[in-house]
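User: Hello! I'm new to structural biology and keep hearing that structure can be predicted from sequence alone. Could you demonstrate with N-acetyltransferase domain-containing protein? Please show me the input and the output so I can see what each looks like.

Assistant: Of course. The first part below is the input, the amino acid sequence of N-acetyltransferase domain-containing protein. The second part is the output, the predicted structure written as tokens.
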Amino acid sequence: MTVEIVPLTPDRAHLFFELFDGEGFADNPGWSGCYCRFYHYDHQCGDWENEPAADNRTDACHLIADGTMRGWIALEGQRPVGWLNAGRKDGYRAFRGDDVPGKAGDATGIITCFLVAPSARGKGVARQLLETALEGFRAQGLSWVEAKPAKSPETAASNYHGPLSMYLKHGFEIAGDFSEYQNLVRLAL
């Protein structure tokens, strides 16, 4: 499948929400209320599990508007079929602490989440999103990019960080454990 990959910008926010509110979570509606806010959320000041979807959506609007939420949208024609949440590692609250595995400084990008609409899965959309992100990180002058693919994904939903095999095919190396359930992979740019 050939798609056009465009960066998320405030004037494209409607595409992000069209994917999240539409087909993106057709087979996994329980996760639709995240709006990719998890890694931007201050987990020390609240309980993520009890965050209402409406609040996540509103906060995602603000994060997109002020340029904090970064990533790329895959379009088939005018229809959004994929999303990749990726940006500078220090741009996410969740990765700012000294206890974060693989902390590599401010010259590091991180790939956090993929969302590919069920009708577009298995057609290379995630690969195209990843390749665009890598080009974007190089253009920003970043030195490293990291990701945290699941060690043993059991469903498409549990592979939302991207499959390990895809990262390895693109030159990433396993740098250790991000958590009990996730590898930390890293690529020198």
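User: So the tokens describe the shape?

Assistant: Right, they're a compact way of writing down the 3D structure. Reading them back into a model, for example: The chain has a mean pLDDT of 90.
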